[in-house]
Amino acid sequence: MLLTWRLFGSLPATYKCKRQMIQDQGRAFAEFDRLLDRAATGPKWLAYPVVADCVLKTIRAGAESGMYELYSFVVMANHVHLLVKPLAPLAKITNWIKGVSAREANLVLRRTGDHFWQQESYDHWVRSAQEFQKIRAYIERNPVRAALVSHPRLWKYSSAFGGTA
Question: Where are the domains of the chain?
């Protein structure tokens, strides 16, 4: 399962109308991700290492608790991608990760009463081993596509960090 969610207000309000005009879900997701990678509008709380660490810790804790098997992830400036095998209901997984990480991040940022994550998220069931590998590579190459690093293993907030691939 590919899961993607973003910070509240990270895309302009006009994006929802544009997304509804794109019929192909794959094309819509790619456009959505390109806009997020540019991080031209909205908050970029996840670019702060202490906040990204909160999210990373929560993602790993969810796997350790047995909610899901974690295969791949990346934490970007304003969004997160996960590739997991859910072992609990999907709503429980996303609500838990978003709830715990938002509370911790808001404490660090000294924010109260404001939304942290956008309520909506994107999910996609992986249908084959080939698609799994394609999605894993897509996730881990996200920081390279966004011109943040030259190689996936250089992005600290990714499952590729420190690897040799």
Answer: 2-154
Name the CATH topology of 2-154. Answer: Alpha-Beta Plaits (3.30.70)
Instruction: Record the pTM.
Output: 0.85
Q: What is the average pLDDT across 153-165?
A: 86
Write out pLDDT tens, residues 4-43: 999 998 776 655 544 454 455 666 666 666 666 666 678 9
| Cβ(109)–Cβ(51) below 8 Å | yes
Tokens standing for residue 66: 């047995």
**Backbone phi and psi for residue 81, each to the nearest 5 degrees, phi listed first:** -120, 135
Strand partners, 117: 7
Torsions phi, psi for 71 (to 5 deg): -105, -40
Read out DSSP for 7-30?
BTT-S-THHHHHHHH---HHHHHH
User: Is-contact 104 58, C-beta < 8 A?
Assistant: yes
Spatial separation of the C-alpha atoms in residues 146 and 131, rounded to whole Å: 22
Picking from 69, 143, 61, 55, the residue whose alpha carbon sits closest to that of residue 98 is 55
Beta strands in the chain (DSSP E): 2-6, 68-75, 79-86, 122-124
The span from the CA of 119 to the CA of 134, in Å, is: 27
